[in-house]
């Protein structure tokens, strides 16, 4: 049966809405354009959506689109279905082995780039989105990303190569495999407390790597390790910058101060929630 794009997108929207997806219309349209691009073997610009909705769909599109809509109805994130996510200035490959880069994390990148640095360490790098974004804007800097997951590191290496960034990657439990000092240490660690996990959306709870989400405890274990290890790996005046959950600003700030870091500051995201905490190692005169 011959169908128009609008007919199959409308049916998909109803199916996604019945599956409990808030942005059913938007997701149905995004996946339609992606499926169309796969069938036609080219990128389909968003502004051409109206034309493709009124046109008859090409052979092969309904089956390809159905596979994607079924995955989305099962609450697989759109980024995993498409295999990519836009972050900062680039598209990054994402898989079920990596945390999906969030727009909120761009604040960490923005703040990190507000001051110069010649070296950066990213702990729990995942897709490499933070590290690669920083190095792309500071091509003279050297960078290292570590993660417990070899599969995630494979994704990060591929993203670095795709974007044209040189970086070192290594399997490490936080600082265990790290030597030397850095001007900047960044991290978006697992900060969701165990008792908060059931309240997460299925897209996060069921599809993203659990060890990138929670420490199976109070959500602060990673910050204890980061703050304890950072002073030994920061150059004089080097900065530690971490993303946090919205209720963790006070606790993480205290951990940084207890570790001897100074100038500890909490910054809010666009929604007014505490999002990034940072402090720096004192210089030669204790500044």
TrEMBL record:
SUPFAM superfamilies with a match to the protein in the record: S-adenosyl-L-methionine-dependent methyltransferases
Keyword set, alphabetical order: Methyltransferase, S-adenosyl-L-methionine, Transferase
Positions of the Release factor glutamine methyltransferase N-terminal domain: 7-83
Residues noted as binding substrate in the record, renumbered to the chain: 188-191
UniProt binding sites for S-adenosyl-L-methionine: 124-128, 147, 174, 188
GO MF annotations in UniProt: nucleic acid binding; peptide chain release factor N(5)-glutamine methyltransferase activity
CDD domains: AdoMet_MTases
Segments forming domain Methyltransferase small: 105-192
Catalysis performed (reactions): L-glutaminyl-[peptide chain release factor] + S-adenosyl-L-methionine = N(5)-methyl-L-glutaminyl-[peptide chain release factor] + S-adenosyl-L-homocysteine + H(+)
Annotated PROSITE patterns: N6_MTASE
Keyword Transmembrane helix: no
GO biological process: methylation
EC number: 2.1.1.297
Residues in the signal sequence: none
Entry-linked InterPro entries: DNA_methylase_N6_adenine_CS, HemK-like, N5-glutamine_MTase, PrmC_N, RF_methyltr_PrmC, SAM-dependent_MTases_sf, Small_mtfrase_dom
Enzyme class, UniProt record, top EC level: transferase
Family: Belongs to the protein N5-glutamine methyltransferase family. PrmC subfamily.
Functional note: Methylates the class 1 translation termination release factors RF1/PrfA and RF2/PrfB on the glutamine residue of the universally conserved GGQ motif.
Protein name, per record: Release factor glutamine methyltransferase
Source organism of the structure: Paracoccus litorisediminis
Lineage of source species: Bacteria, Pseudomonadati, Pseudomonadota, Alphaproteobacteria, Rhodobacterales
Encoding gene per record: prmC
